[in-house]
Design a protein that fits this description.
It is built from 1 helix and no strands. By secondary structure, it is an all-alpha fold.
């Protein structure tokens, strides 16, 4: 028959084993979250570059429109 000390020791070992498994699972979760964050950061950077290009194209289009309107107005006078 196992003594109380042996049962307590086994309970302690079981708790440590469970905690180690939980830590391993948490490490995997953290790694997955890091990968997701890195991927999202890359996507954000790519989208920012696209927005910058679109803003530049928009600014150029507005400038061209204004230049054309100015030429049109000058030709009317």
């Amino acid at each position: 028959m196992a003594s109380i000390e042996d049962m307590e020791r086994q309970d302690f070992i079981n708790t440590i084993t469970e905690l180690k498994a939980m830590i391993g699972s948490l490490k995997l979760t953290i790694d997955t979250l890091r990968q997701t964050i890195n991927s999202q950061n890359a996507t954000i950077a790519s989208l920012q570059k696209s927005m910058d290009r679109l803003q530049s194209a928009y600014d150029n289009t507005i400038k061209e429109r204004d230049d054309l309107n100015n030429r049109l107005n000058r030709s009317k006078t």
